[in-house]
Structure formats: C-alpha cells, structure tokens
TrEMBL record:
Record's keyword terms, sorted: Glycoprotein, GPI-anchor, Lipoprotein, Membrane, Signal, Transmembrane, Transmembrane helix
Membrane-spanning residues: 439-458
Name assigned to this protein: COBRA-like protein
Family affiliation: Belongs to the COBRA family.
Organism: Oldenlandia corymbosa var. corymbosa
Keyword Electron transport attached: no
Alphabetized Pfam families for the sequence: COB_C (PF25079), COBRA (PF04833)
Amino acid sequence: MNGDPFCYKSSVSFHFDERLMGSIQILVFCLLCFASSTYGYDPLDPNGNITIKWDVMHDDQNTQVVRVSIFNFQLFRHVEQPGWKLTWNWTGDEVIWDMTGAETTEQGNCSAFKSKQLPHCCDRQPVIVDLLPGAPFNKQVANCCKGGVLSSMTQNPSKYGASFQMTIGSFNASVNGTTGEALTGFPQNFSIGLPGYTCGEPLQVPPSKFIEDRGRRRTQALDTWNITCSYSQFRATPTPTCCVSLSAFYNDTIIPCPKCSCACQGQPTAKCINPGELPPVLQLHHNEEPQPVVRCTPHMCPIRIHWHVMLSYKQYWRVKLTITNLNFVKNYTDWNLVVLHPNLKKVTRVFSFNYKPINQYGALNDTGIFYGIEYYNDMLLQSGKTGNVQTELLLEKDTGWKFSFGEGWAFPRKISFNGEECVIPQPDYYPTLPNSGPFTAIALPLSLIVLIAFLVLYRMT
C-alpha cells in the first residue's frame, strides 16, 4: 500500500461494497422465494390443483383419437361461469377433424382442404370450450356439457370433472392425400383460460384405465399425459375481492371493513354506484367475465362478510354470519365460504347453510367450509335487497381452549370467499369487553376539576 491512506481506504471500500452487494442479492432471493410460496400455495388446500388428462385412445398412421379430461382437485375453489377455456399450441401440422363433448371457438383457415368435409379446427392454437347443458345428443360424451362449470371437491364431488373427445389428423397428409408417419408431436403451452392459473409441462404417466360393461371389463389408453395447473391469488387479481366486518353483543361498536380493502374511490379501475344511481348496462361477449361495479363504500369490495357474536349461553355461544353481494353486475353461483377458527371443531348446528369440516392436518380441526343449500340459497344474487345470504352457528364452548370473549378470541382468524382470502380488521380494533377496554380520557367541566383538586389538597393537609 506504500503508506498511501487513499489506497487503503479504496481497498476497504471495495470489499465492503462487494459484501454489501452479496447480502442484498441473498436478501432479494429470499424475498422472492417467500413471495412465491405465499401467493402460489394455500396451506388450507396444499394439494389443490386442476389436472388436464390427455388419453390417446386410438392411433394409426395419420390420425389419433384423444380423450381429454379436466379435473378440479381443489377442496373449496371452483370454476364458475363463464367456465374454463382450454388452449394449447400444436408442435406439428395437426388439425382437429372432429370433436364431441366440446367445441373450438374458431374454425380457422381450412381453405387448403378441397374435400367436402372440412376439419373442425385448423388453428395452430385452438381454444376449446365446454358445450352447454342440453346440447344435441350426437355431440355429447360422458361427463360433458356443463358450460365449463366445475364444482369443488367438497361441495359436489360428482361434478368436479369434464371430458371431451376429438380426432386429430395430419394437415399435410390430408391435403396431399399421402400416407405419412404417425403423429408423434405433443402439444405445448397449455392454459386453462382462468385468471390466476398457471399450467406446467406435460408429464407422461401410466396409461389410464376405464371400466366398461358395468365393471366386468377394463380397458386402457395407449398413452396418457398429465398437465397440472396451479392457482395463485396474486396472479388472479392485484387487489383483494372481499372483506370482513365484526360486531358483538357485548359492545355497541361495529368494526367495519378496513378502508380501501379492495380499492379506493376515485381510482380508474374502481367503478362504483352511489345510492339512487342506476347501474350501467353492460355489453358482454360470450365467455367474458364482467368487471365489478360495486356499491360506493369506504372499502370498495364486491363481497362483504359480517361476523356477529350474538349470544352467550352457559355451555354454548351463537354467531350470525352474513354474506352481502355489493356487485351490481354479477351473481355468484355455488358460492362458498371458508372460515378458520379454533372452536369450529365444536360446531353443534348450522342453520340454512351446508357445512363440512376441512381437516388437512390430522387432529387439528379448526377450518370449515360453508355453502348454500341447492335450490334455496346456493346463488348469491347481485347487489340489492335480495343480494345477501345469512346463517347462524351454534358452537359448544371448548374448555380445552380456555374459552373467552376477551382478546378477540371469538372472531375468525381467516376467511375466504370462493377461494379468495378476505381482508380482516386488525386485532387492535376488535370489539372489546366492557371491563377490558382501554382507558379513554373524558372531558370534565372546569368546576369539577377544581373540586377534585381541592379535595386532594384537603386530604394531603
């Protein structure tokens, strides 16, 4: 260093900056890992996903018969209208000659075919939608024609899947009238067409087996691939879609949804209707999800859930649960509500809702799903006088958990609506018991203050 203090200082500064940059890189990497695990993984449904199954049923030199099935393996997140839209990219020169149980939204350019019969679809990236209920019988296959709606595993296990069948041919062989090699390429870049879902790469698995003749015969596919699609609320929407308000019989204060829970009034994407105004008339295309137009509120959420602690008995306590739809342009079909609370394992009765516990971690039974009764309240209507559903819960007081109304114990730890986590007020704002509230300064008259001071001085003397 030749005794030059500037050289020594420069060397130290360089090593410090290098260590600092390394620490920053590690910190950024950890934050990214934490964010991805938070937004792409649901601890209440760790194995939930949508799986696309591709079964090759028949294969000759130029054509394949393929059965495609879509299964919703999620406990409480379902696919509602307008439904799934399956798409992929062909890697070869494939065309879809025929399809039953579903249809493509576009036929594409099939002008190269001079035959009388044209393919069902010539697009390089076909978009497939489910047939509607009541489709012609000759276009149906087993487990089809639900309009793209898939139930969750908990609500209706018999309606969580959909299937269709198609015949794939070679474009060049069909146009030129030649016999080419068998189709070997597999589609890539699968998408289910639903916000928040990301599909992985196709994975070849053991061939699927099918039961025929009332179980007396079993057949199997020639080849089978699985494509797994996972959900992330962060990818689905940048802001929450629901919020929670709280109240209790022992406190007159109603704790509203936190301000700007879902959006703030005045933002370009936050459309709301004031009292007395009429909602807009929307012109929607087929299979298009309408953007929310909500009632003007401080929180601006389409859905509000209110948890009210009603009564306390000797051995039981009672809760009223209300779901209000503040969205003017959407009905919620087959809605569901997932609640996390330690006393749910002692639910005695639920009025006017269906209820099932969600027990993913052994004996830890603190989560349950609520959903409507079919043909009664399974549809949550758009904002208005009838735009709400409600129930009451009767729960046994669990002495093992040291039951108490203090410290906000009676309020839920987590609530989600249709699989979307809702914004809950901070515990500091929970309704408090009358004898446990914080000290509040009271403005006293000057004469009373003087009298108190006089009495204090009198006792001191």
